[in-house]
Design a protein that fits this description.
By secondary structure, the chain is α+β, with helices and mostly antiparallel strands. It has two domains: about 150 residues, no CATH class; about 100 residues. The chain is built from twelve helices and eight strands. Strands 1-5-2-3-4 form a five-stranded antiparallel beta sheet. Strands 7-6-8 form a three-stranded antiparallel beta sheet. Helix 5 crosses helix 6, helix 6 runs antiparallel to helix 11 and helix 7 crosses helix 11. The longest helix is centred in the middle third of the chain and has 19 residues. It is elongated. The two termini are about 30 Å apart.
Length: about 250
């Protein structure tokens, strides 16, 4: 993948997937006007995220969840010292249990990652190499994060660009059993994946799915980025097998 470039030329979802496929260890820095986000990878796996947006801070997250009060947040902010993190202060104050801090940081990290998928303008820069370690890291499937990130995008222009028009054909990629196991698909998503065991165009997939056309196109885009399906120029017969996981139709 290119080490730097414009977010107007490549989608964040594709950047994340490319970093994952290349088993990158490093930080993907995203900048859009005054906002800066940093996604941290370890051997291609998303493990942490940080944001310059004050609303993405742990205190704001915990306050929204009702896990802390406004008084507790302000007291913790006053007790902050260089080198000590907000969550650690809350634990030391007896406001949070350690396990609740871990849960809060994981939720915060996931939320920042999903927010990053919304960026459509700005610059990105990849800094390879292991950086400072984090005490709490994310233990989630990166393909699932990509699916969740794309699933919350509402901009049709992005979805249309990612999926293609009615005449575009898709087919399932063979040999992706392990990738499939990293995902949690609902019944309708799994049915859409089964529908491309043989080449099918977007129009027929929309017509046969319980999902509405918008959701079909968005899901196909996500499947393509993740690597479960690929676009083909024509509806030529498959020349390989290995689609048992699709044919069985059960998300294991």
């Amino acid at each position: 993948m290119k080490r730097e470039g414009s977010l107007g030329e490549i989608d964040v979802a594709d950047l994340v997937q490319e970093a994952s496929a290349a088993r990158v260890t490093g930080r993907l820095q995203l900048e859009a006007e005054a906002l800066q986000m940093v996604l941290t990878f370890e051997e291609g796996r998303l493990v942490f995220a940080a944001s310059s947006d004050p609303d993405h801070r742990l205190g704001s997250k915990l306050l929204r969840r009702g896990a802390i009060t406004l008084r507790q947040m302000e007291d913790a902010n006053r007790a902050m010292k260089p080198g000590k993190r907000f969550g650690t202060v809350l634990v030391e104050m007896g406001v949070l249990e350690a396990k609740d801090l871990v849960s809060g940081v994981i939720d915060q990290t996931r939320d920042i990652i999903l927010q990053a998928f919304r960026l459509t303008a700005g610059q990105y820069r990849l800094h390879e190499g292991k950086g400072p370690g984090e005490d709490i890291t994310l233990n989630m499937s990166t393909p699932q994060l990509v699916l969740d990130g794309i699933s919350q995008i509402e901009a049709w222009t992005r979805i249309a660009r990612g999926c293609g028009g009615l005449g575009v054909h898709y087919v399932a990629v063979a040999g992706t059993d392990e990738l499939f196991k990293q995902l949690t698909l609902d019944v309708d998503q799994a049915a859409l994946l089964r529908a491309v065991r043989q080449p099918a165009d977007v129009e027929s997939l929309c017509g046969d799915s319980v999902l509405n056309d918008f959701e079909v196109c968005r899901t196909l885009w996500a499947f393509r980025v993740i690597g479960l399906v690929r676009r083909i120029e024509s509806a030529a017969p498959l020349d390989d097998d290995g689609l048992e996981f699709v044919l069985n139709g059960e998300n294991r």
